[in-house]
Amino acid sequence: MRALTVAPLETDSVRVSEVEAPAAGEGELLVDGIALGICGTDREIARGDYGWAPPGQDRLILGHESLGRVREAPGGSGFAPGDLVVGVVRRPDPEPCGACAHGEFDMCRNGRYTERGIKDRHGFGAQQWTVEADYAVKLDPALERVGVLLEPTTVVTKAWEHIERIGARAWFAPRRVLVTGAGPIGLLAALLGVQRGLEVHVLDRAASGVKPELVAALGASYHTGTIPEVAAEAEPDVVIEATGATAVVLDAVTHTASAGIVCLTGIPAAGPKVGVDTGALNREMVLENDVVFGSVNANLRHFRLAAEALARADLAWLERLITRRLPLSRAHEAFTPQEDDVKVVIDL
Ligand code: BGC
C-alpha cells in the first residue's frame, strides 16, 4: 500500500512510499484510509523543523487529521465494518503522569506523550491504518465528505471547554467572541461560538475570497482592521487567537476586556524578539482579572464532543472549508499553501 512518509528533521523529505500494509493487533481496528487533512504542524514536519519517527525507524508515516472506514473490528469493540472513524492523535506518556492517568493526555505534564503522525508513532496518511478501538471515534455516516475536519474541531472544542471552565471561576455570561485568523482553526472556533449562541467576530487579513463568505454564512461578522479597532467596536469577552502572528498575539493579550479570557492556539516558530512593557501588561492583567492561556491537542472527551458539533453543523458550510482535495499521487502540493486555501485534504 502507499503512504505519505517523511524523514523527520530532514528538509523536503516528503514522499509517497510503498510500505507494508498493517495488521490489526488485539483490540485494534483495521481501517481503510479515506482522507487526510494537512495543517501547519504537517508543513513544519515536512520542512524538517519538527517530528519524530517511531523508535529505531528512519521514516514517519505523516498525518494526524484522519478519516477512514472500518474494515475489521474486534467483537465487542462497539465498531463494525463500514463505520466511519477518526483516530485520536495523542497517547499517554508511559509513566503515566497524573493528567495522563486521568485520560487528560492533552495536558501531559512530563512531555513524554506520543502522537500519531507527529511524535514517535506512525500517522494516518496511509491507504490502511490501525488504531486501538479505545482511541477511535465513530462519526455520523453523513460526515463522509467532511469528517476529516474532526481533529481540528477537537482542538477548538478543547479550547472552548477550557475557556468555559476558566470563566466559571466567577460570574460568567459571555456575549461576544473575537476570533483572530480565518484559517481552519479560526473558522471552526467561530462555528463553535455560533453554536453557543454568541455574537462572533472574525478578524483576518484577506479582504475578499472564501473567508469573508464563510464567516458571513455563519451569521458572524468579518473584519480586516486591527485588534484595537475591532475590540473597541465589538468589546469581546473572549478572544481566540488562531494566527500565531507576533503582532496579532501581542495586540490580543494587551487589548482584553475586563475579566477577558484570551486563548492562544497558534504554534509559531520562536523569534524574533519584540519589546513588551511587562509592567503595563502585568498591571492591566491584575486590575482587570484577565486570563491569557494556551491550548493544544485534545483528549477523547473532546473528540466525542467535536463529533457531535460536526454532526450539528451545516454540511455544505463544512464542505466549503475544504478548498483543495488532492489525490495521494499529488500529496506534495498540499505542503505549499495557496492563496485562499482554508483546508487542504489528501484523498487516500
Ligand atoms: C495537532 C495537535 C498536536 C500539536 C503539537 C497540532 O497540529 O493538532 O494534536 O498536539 O500539533 O504536536
Automatic annotation (TrEMBL):
Its cofactor is Zn(2+). This is Threonine dehydrogenase-like Zn-dependent dehydrogenase. GO terms for molecular function: metal ion binding; oxidoreductase activity. Keywords: Metal-binding, Oxidoreductase, Zinc. Residues 145-348 form the Glucose dehydrogenase C-terminal domain. Coiled coil: none annotated. Residues 25-139 form the Alcohol dehydrogenase-like N-terminal domain. Pfam families: ADH_N, Glu_dehyd_C. The lineage of its organism: Bacteria, Bacillati, Actinomycetota, Actinomycetes, Streptosporangiales. It comes from Murinocardiopsis flavida.
